[in-house]
Every structure is written in structure tokens, then in C-alpha cells.
Specification:
Blueprint: H1 2-18, H2 21-39, H3 43-53, H4 59-82, H5 88-94, E1 95-97, H6 99-110, E2 115-119, H7 125-135, E3 139-144, H8 150-161, E4 166-169, H9 173-179, E5 185-190, E6 201-205, E7 208-212, H10 215-223, E8 227-236, E9 239-248, H11 258-273
Parallel strand pairs: 1-9, 2-5, 2-8, 3-4, 3-5
Antiparallel strand pairs: 6-7, 8-9
Helix pairs in contact: 1-4, 2-4, 3-4
């Protein structure tokens, strides 16, 4: 059945990918109406997340932010499928790497240093990976959760690797990074997903107790790679700019929780500046902090 659904869907997915951008965004407007106004997909989750994160904002502003988020979510969904057929020149026109970020990555490459990137589900992270692979000299690997549906997982792998990006399944991260140690690599972690509460690092993020995966920090200490934070700013509809800043060059000697704290603090700053492009329908706060666990930052 999964295969049947996939093969029925595939022609429509490719049709979406070849649509001109003006048509694509008109279709996105229609999807927004259906998703937000007709079905209300996870609207309660998004509204509650926004209220908890911005208690200082009035309800009218919260609801406006929610509508803006759903409009962006529909754009993001269709932009992702565009990766199937988009030309490299168009990709680089619509998602640019800032000169300062390029200098950081080129500098590490000249020094022969591999690095780790940390980022959130903020802006078009799929396009950012494409632009990095088209622009930078080091090999990019992205840590990801494979989809349960093997057919659609294959499609996502095809999209994500089209411009040379490599993928590492989360469960194989450390093993694969050790295997790639002879190469100059950049390994990207989207570090705002939800871990199990008992094994997480807990901190305050957007006014709420929030669990953070410890794995990213543990691997950083073991590999002793510089840690670079990435943000993807939306300039206007369909256009992005990638910024970067070094969080630490001495991961091995950081205090417990320091890297996680630096990343979440920086991500919160970005979200407050442009809240509508973060993933508010994600159940980020479904777990409660265990009573015996205290945060470090």
C-alpha cells in the first residue's frame, strides 16, 4: 500500500517541482487556506507553543503570528519539493551564503579542519544544505532521521543529495564521523528536536523548560571539532541568506552543557527576531522535566 501511494503521488510531486515560482506560491496560498482554515492542522499545538513562548504578546498578535507561520509552512513544503528539479544557478540566487560565513568555512578548509554545524528548524534548512554543497569546498554531511516509509525516504534522500550533500542516519553519527576523519568534512546537526526527558540536557528555552539532545555535545567533545552555528534568514518570499558564527573552537574543554546552552541561546535570539519561520507545529514541549534533573544554564 505504501508503495502504491508513493507511485501515485510521484508524478504530482514532480509536477509541483517544475512549476514556476509565481505559480508555486499561488498554490501555496491555496494550501494555506486548506491547512489553516479548513483542517486547522495542529493549530492548537502551534497557538499554545506561541502563547507559552511569548507570554508578553497579546492574543491578537499571537494569532497573527500563527497565520504567518502557516503561510510560511506551506511555502517551505513546496520549496522543498522544488529541490527535485531546481537548477544550481537558481538555487544559489535564491539561497545565498553570506561573505562572512563563506570566509569562516574557507578558513577552516585551508587549515585542514573538519567542523560541526548546529542549527534549528528555522528557515529553509533544506535549501541551506544545497547552497553549502554548491558553494563550499568541504564535504557536507547532514545527520537525519530516516522516514519510516522507505519509498518517501528514498525520495528525500534523492532531493537532499542531489547537489553533493551526504547523509548520516542519526544512529550511525559517531561511527560515520570517525570513518570520515581522513576527509575535511562539515557535519550538520539540526539540534532542536525532542529527546527522551531522562537522557536530555535541560535548559530554559523560549520561557519553558526544554530538553536538548546530549548526543551533539558528546560527539563534539569526542571529535574535538570547532562548532559553528548556522542561521537562515528569510529575506523575502523564496529568498534566504545563510549566516554563520563560531560558537567554540575548543569543544573538548567546554563545561558540561556549555555547547547545548550556547546553541539554544543563539537559536532563541533568531526565533525572537523572525518567529514565523520556526517549526511551531512540532510538539517541542511534550515532555516535562524530571523532578531530580536540574538545568546547568
Amino acid at each position: 500500500m505504501k508503495g502504491l501511494i508513493y507511485y501515485i503521488s510521484l508524478p504530482f510531486i514532480y509536477l509541483l517541482s517544475i512549476l514556476p515560482f509565481p505559480v508555486l506560491y499561488r498554490l501555496s496560498d491555496l494550501f494555506y487556506f486548506i491547512l489553516y482554515s479548513v483542517f486547522g492542522y495542529r493549530k492548537k499545538v502551534a497557538l499554545q507553543n506561541l502563547r507559552n513562548s511569548f507570554p508578553e504578546k497579546p492574543e491578537t498578535e499571537i494569532r497573527k503570528l500563527c497565520r504567518q507561520y502557516y503561510r510560511y509552512l506551506c511555502d517551505l513544503f513546496l520549496e522543498t519539493f522544488k529541490t527535485l528539479t531546481i537548477r544550481p544557478s537558481t538555487m544559489l540566487k535564491r539561497c545565498t551564503l553570506s561573505p562572512a560565513a563563506k570566509d569562516i568555512f574557507d578558513g577552516y578548509h585551508r587549515e585542514g579542519k573538519s567542523i560541526m554545524l548546529v542549527m534549528g528548524h528555522y528557515g529553509n534548512w533544506e535549501w541551506a544544505g544545497n547552497t553549502f554543497s554548491l558553494t563550499c569546498k568541504q564535504q557536507l554531511f547532514v545527520v537525519y532521521h530516516p522516514f519510516g516509509n522507505t519509498y518517501f525516504n528514498g525520495l528525500m534522500v534523492r532531493m537532499r543529495t542531489r547537489f553533493g550533500t551526504g547523509l548520516i542516519a542519526m544512529k550511525d553519527t559517531y561511527k560515520e564521523m570517525v570513518k570520515n576523519k581522513s576527509m575535511i568534512t562539515t557535519t550538520a546537526f539540526i539540534a532542536d528536536q525532542t529527546p527522551q526527558p531522562d537522557n536530555a540536557f535541560w535548559t530554559s528555552f523560549l520561557n519553558q523548560d526544554t530538553p536538548v539532545f546530549r548526543g551533539t555535545e558528546k560527539i563534539a567533545k569526542k571529535m574535538d571539532y570547532p562548532i559553528v552555528y548556522i542561521t537562515i534568514k528569510r529575506l523575502k518570499r523564496g529568498y534566504y541568506n545563510i549566516l554563520a558564527e563560531v560558537l567554540t573552537e575548543d569543544a573538548k574543554n567546554t563545561a558540561e552543557g556549555e555547547i547545548s546552552g550556547l546553541h539554544t541561546t543563539r537559536l532563541e535570539k533568531d526565533i525572537r527576531e523572525q518567529p514565523e519561520i520556526w517549526l511551531w507545529t512540532h510538539r517541542r514541549w511534550k515532555h516535562k522535566r524530571p523532578a531530580e534533573i536540574k538545568s546547568i544554564v
